Amino acid sequence: MKKGEWQLIDLYPGAHIRVKVGNFYHHGIYIGDGEVVQFGLPFDMYTDAKDVKVLRSPISDFCKPNDFIEVYVYSRKELKQKFKDEVIIANALSHVGEGGYSIIKNNCEHFANFCVFGKKISGQIDGAYRDVDEMYKKEK
Length: 140
Hints:
Elements: E1 5-7, E2 16-21, E3 24-32, E4 35-39, E5 54-58, H1 59-62, E6 70-73, H2 76-81, H3 85-94, H4 108-117, H5 123-139
Antiparallel strand pairs: 1-6, 2-3, 2-6, 3-4, 4-5
Helix pairs in contact: 3-4
């Protein structure tokens, strides 16, 4: 399946967005009017998981003023699978206040993809597993 790509384009309500935080990306759903729904704040990876919640917040809480916010641009196949933007926003808002954060099984990228596709997917975690598997194979 051809995947979409991340681009520096204008935000729109329902957009899956991300910002670089160190070696990782923090993901959220832009809901319009300068607000984002995100699973925790960008530096919550250093916070106790039980304290991380889904938040509705100003975009300034999502990123620093000089950060580049990337927007996911879907492939043709993904466009057929994703929810409509208004459903994505409703999905995101319906989870505000929820917890259950896990960097491996339920992180900000899982949350954003769940809002968009109804599936918890994290390319960053999948990539990390592939990297560890490759290192393991090289050691044999």
